[in-house]
Fold this protein.
Amino acid sequence: MRAGKDKINLDIYDLLNDAEMDLAEYEVVEPDVFTKERHVSELKKIIHLSKSPQANWRYRLNAVAILCIGMVLLSFFTFKLAPAFATNIPVVGSIIKNITGYGNDVFDDYTEIIGKTAEAEGIEITLNEVVLDENQLRIAITVKGLSESNHEYGSVMTPQVAINGRVINPSGSSGIGEFKEDGQFVCVATFDINQIKLPKENHVTVSYFPTDSEGKPLWQSSEKNPWEFQFQVSKRSIAAKTETYRIDRSVIYNQVVMKLEDMTITPLTTSIRFKFKGDRPLSFIIKDQSGKELKLETMGYGTGSLLNRLWGYNEGDFAYSGVGDESKRLTLIPYVEQLNRESEKTIGEKALKELKAFDGKLPLILEQTGDNRLIVEEVTSKDGVIYISYRSEGISSELQKYRLYLYDESLNQVERDYENSKMDTLGTSEDLFIAAFKEPESGIFYLGTDRMDEVTVLEDQKIEIRLKR
């Protein structure tokens, strides 16, 4: 379905749409400070970048998003991932739903339970369940026998995966969430596969390579890997409910020309393919007709095909959360976030819009730029932690929700307690977020927000897509 009238060399682009692409060329780019906070959800994060060994991509964000209890490990993808927070390990059949699926019950219909266990060298790995659609493969495991070493946990987060004999390059991995409880480690690895054409039925081989506390591999290459799993997985039922819409529209900002090609919507995920010229691609807010907002999970881009290289285009894709059955129309609103290293160092201070002493009167409204605001509905204190319940009004709850700051009586910013915060919601303006902070000793504190100066919304270039529903 066409979302607009702009059309440039459609025949050539149609040919490119059918071209096979090498995921080894794909990397995930580093998000700015606010994007990191939006997608890290309840957790602190550490960004790990590495140069691409295979293509002239800018960066690779080692795509690991972590949900943990008591400890946060490694790095966050772009996560573009904001997994839902839980206090107990989910039961088998709901692990993927609760760690990387925002608790969306639709995952129940498409999760396949595998239930295979392999044990060697004191390490037991159980492959619990998988989910496969047109955009992603997600694999949930439980591991026993690991110590508190970062090396050991990291070694089982991203497996080697082959689908029908084709190895999926690790740079296609888009995220991991995890739980720890009673000596068990539960995590979900997510692989972006939307550039690969897969049949309805697929044979998958998954191999894990645990290490010891010093990072040395426990598996010797001369032996058969004891932590290798093979299974069949079908996407037949979800493929029947998958829709692809031709967008074929261009968005221009300064020296950036970005062409959105198509959008693939499954009951679980949403993917948008694009090409662009310029320094880096634009970002997009996506809302349905009721204002419900999709969550950006990953974004990657690279050089792509030879023809696009000759024309000066990079190719890439966005991964968003799924579109609900109630959605009849989607609006894509482009925006730009200026990367300013100095503002990253002074987040919540340099660009403060409003700072108010909390005097117990509610609701407390904190104005941002234009029609954007945060509305504090409730403030409570328990066991030395302050819980702030608030909602957002404005252009995007995903852009706004991490812009609530708390200061002590000396106006020193108090670090957010991510473990006790609750930031994942259904994506509507009525959703309440809960931000947790360590309570200042004096009990006196201020609440503030910023002007969102680094965000430029291109409202006049928004794109609407009417869904066939």
